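Design request, tokens follow.
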């Protein structure tokens, strides 16, 4: 099964899908996420809104473990996520789609691993699944690289922080990409993100940042984003092998 995690502005992808069924998936993490089961391009798809119905959870309160665990329990073995981001790279302007290939994690309070009682050291030479990234890249007008900087939120970043992230090699900044990408890898799920640039970061943008501009860009780009997701789903093989499916080999102490 293919999993889609919808970020800000992406709450429903069922408009062109068949046989939508909404279910609650029981997990061991105090939240039972609602997932839409769909048929898209003849393939089984599970859609999960990251912030829950009605955008109920702010970034720092999302139960990432419950979300990833729910998708895994449904048989999901590859996930396409969407993330609304600010740009700290002038070559990645508002409206751009960025298929990131690396990350910098500046979160501080999040539960970042499934392995609290067992020693597991995962290799993160390829933080995102390159097989899945290449499928997305081949199906749309996207920027094919980028380092995602994840902050705790819910506030936006300061100009000094954005300046620091630039110096460290960051390209886009958001609040929801981690630990999601890490948890997916721990569950041996192929994972890639389509980041939608909604604005430039503070100190780069001449204006103060508001959620209005974020939502405006996400609404403007929604059809293009959904079309890219559908094209990628059509292009994905259900019978495949990938290093992501065997990442725990040699990782357990």
């Amino acid at each position: 099964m293919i999993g889609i995690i919808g970020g800000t502005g992406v709450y429903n992808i069922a408009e062109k899908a068949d046989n939508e069924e909404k279910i609650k998936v029981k997990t061991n993490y105090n939240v039972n996420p609602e997932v839409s089961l769909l048929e898209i391009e003849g393939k089984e798809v599970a859609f999960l809104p990251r912030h829950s119905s009605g955008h109920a959870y702010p970034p720092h309160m999302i139960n990432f473990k419950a979300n990833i665990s729910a998708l895994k329990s449904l048989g999901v073995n590859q996930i396409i996520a969407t993330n609304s981001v600010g740009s700290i790279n002038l070559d990645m302007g508002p409206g751009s789609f960025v298929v990131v290939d690396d990350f910098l994690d500046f979160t501080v309070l999040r539960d970042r691993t499934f392995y609290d009682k067992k020693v597991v050291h995962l290799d993160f030479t390829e933080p995102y699944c390159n097989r899945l990234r290449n499928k997305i890249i081949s199906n749309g007008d996207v920027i094919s690289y980028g380092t995602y900087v994840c902050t705790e939120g819910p506030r936006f970043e300061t100009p000094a922080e954005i300046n620091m992230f630039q110096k460290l090699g960051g390209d886009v900044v958001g609040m929801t990409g981690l630990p999601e990408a890490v948890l997916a890898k721990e569950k041996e799920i192929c994972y890639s993100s389509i980041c939608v640039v909604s604005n430039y970061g503070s100190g780069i943008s001449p204006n103060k940042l508001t959620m209005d501009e974020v939502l405006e860009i996400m609404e403007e780009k929604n059809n293009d984003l959904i079309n890219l997701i559908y094209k990628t789903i059509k292009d994905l093989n259900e019978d495949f092998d990938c290093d992501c499916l065997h990442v725990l080999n040699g990782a357990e102490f």
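Comment from the thread starter after seeing the answer: thanks! The radius of gyration is 17 Å.
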